[in-house]
Amino acid sequence: MIRRELLLAVAVGLAAPAAHAQETVKIGLILPMTGQQASTGKQVDAAVKLFLAQKGNMVAGKKIEVILKDDTGVPDVAKRLAQELVVNDKVAILAGFGLTPIALAVAPIATQAKVPEVVMAAGTSSITEASPFVVRTAFTLAQSSVPMAEWSIKNGIKKVVTLVSDFGPGIDAEKSFTEKFKADGGTVIESLRVPLRSPDFSPVLQKAADAKPDALFVFVPSGAGAQFVKQFVERGLDKTGIKLIATGDVTDDDQLNGMGDVVIGVINAHNYSANHDSAMNKAYVEAFRKANNGLRPNFMSVGGWDGMNLIYEALKKTNGATDGEKLVAAMKGMAWESPRGPISIDPETRDIVQNIYIRKVEKVGGELYNVEFATIPNVKDPVKAAKK
Ligand code: DHB
User: Fold this and answer.
1) Residue 196: is its pLDDT beyond 80?
2) Average per-residue pLDDT in the chain?
3) Which residues, 6 or more positions from 299, have their beta carbon under 8 angstroms from its beta carbon?
4) Ligand 1 midpoint to CA 167 (Å)
5) Ligand 1 centre distance from Cα of residue 369 (Å)
6) DSSP assignment, residue 21?
7) Of 25, 231, 273, 301, which residue has the fewest beta carbons closer than 10 angstroms?
8) For 325-337, what is the mean pLDDT?
9) Could you give phi then psi for residue 117, rounded to 5 degrees?
10) Burial class for 352, CB neighbours closer than 10 Å (0-12, 13-18, 19+)
11) What is the pLDDT of residue 4?
12) Is 99 in the pocket of ligand 1 (CB under 6 A)?
């Protein structure tokens, strides 16, 4: 080999691995895989894995690599992990986020690094305003709380006590339910809150019983519904005639079937039911259960599934370019069919637009499900809509 050829061979040899490395698009998936919010992590991770298994790991000529990190449900841990994923792993996209404080803690890193932050599992309205790089495939609490207030008034409920977890999404649920319920002529007698960490519902349930409302409106995060229902029964509230109404976070598909017949008849509003009647959802539920030992997918899982779809479709639009601003621009206005029904990304707010369903817990084939009986189509986040 003459010297010139040798140099060329060396140059190609050196360049080849670098060029190859650029062909991989890394997604940093930050989820609570352990701790109080572990069911959310498990659901979202399972949906991401199912998406990859079904759609493959190649899109727009790029290989997709998902790097899963456990934030343990702690914002500071998530922040450190996001930093490491951006700086060391050079991820093109950050995704996941099972709690509002975690999505908020990572937002400044997304802004600084110009990396899209795909929020798959947190629902406080303001998250999308924390960074121009946040795009949400999850839900907002106002999306389900406002329709729940509307339904309640129309169905003869006049006096309500609200009970929420005392953090971002709970406060959004309380506020948006109360505003709509009052505007439509209802009265909120009392607004009760419980801590997010290790809540004891007994004292607030006693207060709720004493107030004698027509209904108790409840939001607790995914994973806490079963414990709430247990204490609701232990305190005898199921015998008082006080109706239980809720966001679908309480009658979460992940736990619903274990809650017992006491929840039959509970009316709630939400974006996804495993019982949603569409061909796509039937196939989704079947494949998810098969891949996860019979586990029923919940609303967190579809946030993960759709977050991956959003990323894939954005990469197709940019022809594989991973520039954060280009990716976010491609995501704005995108619309597709989800297992939950038709959804889109509001181009102005980068937040999800989706149907909200009013559901009733019923026994279907021997199992408890949220059975949808009314649809409010294409709901934008009411909190941001009110600001305009
Ligand atoms: C959030 C978390 C939940 O588990 C839920 O059901 C709703 C909202 C949140 O942290 O935003």
Assistant:
1) yes
2) 95
3) 139, 222, 248, 249, 252, 253, 270, 271, 272, 340
4) 9
5) 20
6) H
7) 231
8) 98
9) -115, 100
10) buried
11) 54
12) yes
pTM of model > 0.90: yes
**What are the tens digits of pLDDT across the range 266-321?**
999 999 999 999 999 999 999 999 999 999 999 999 999 999 999 999 999 999 99
Residue 56 pLDDT > 70, yes or no?
yes
Residue 3: the pLDDT is: 54
The one-letter amino acid at 73? G
The pLDDT value recorded for residue 20 is: 45
Q: Decide whether any atom of ligand 1 lies within 6 Å of the 222 Cβ.
A: yes
Backbone angles phi, psi at 29, to 5 degrees: -105, 105
Q: How far is the CA of 74 from the centre of ligand 1 (A)?
A: 14
Neighbour count for residue 132 (Cβ, 10 Å): 17
**Pocket of ligand 1 contains residue 225 by CB under 6 Å:** no
| Ligand 1 lined by 249 (C-beta under 6 Å) | yes
Q: Is the CB of 45 under 6 A from ligand 1?
A: no
Task: Give Cα separations from 170 to 14, 35, 71, 158, 314 (angstroms).
Answer: 54, 20, 21, 21, 32
Closest CA to 216 of 201, 197, 198: 201
Find the angle CA(262)-CA(44)-CA(323) to the nearest 5 degrees. 150
d(CA 142, CA 96) in angstroms, rounded, equals: 21
Between 385 and 355, residue with greater pLDDT: 355
**Cα–Cα dist 243/237, whole Å:** 9
- 307 alpha carbon, distance to own chain's centre: 10
Residue 285: which of 226, 362, 209, 369 has the closest Cα?
369
Nearby residues of 382 by Cβ (< 8 Å), 6 or more positions away: 140, 142, 143, 146, 176
Residue written as token pair 């199921």: 238
Pair of tokens at residue 289: 């259960």
